[in-house]
Hints:
The chain is α+β, with helices and mostly antiparallel strands. It is about 35% helix and about 15% strand.
Amino acid sequence: RVGYIELDLNSGKILESFRPEERFPMMSTFKVLLCGAVLSRVDAGQEQLGRRIHYSQNDLVEYSPVTEKHLTDGMTVRELCSAAITMSDNTAANLLLTTIGGP
């Protein structure tokens, strides 16, 4: 399934759309937006890319090929962003969500 909405950000007016009334799961595409939000916090001085985040075995979720290798030493925010985007690491995404106040 595919759908989209083209929105004029100045006016809020919908310019074009296809199946706009339907909801679609974002799946891993949200990870790019998540890392953008993290980088925005870095630019605002609210986060540091070099900050190390420690986590436990209990934090690991299915498909975490990078974070599962760093249980003892944790990972930096920079490394978590890279893992989330390049390897679609789900634990990395969850840890980053926490840093921006998400669920």
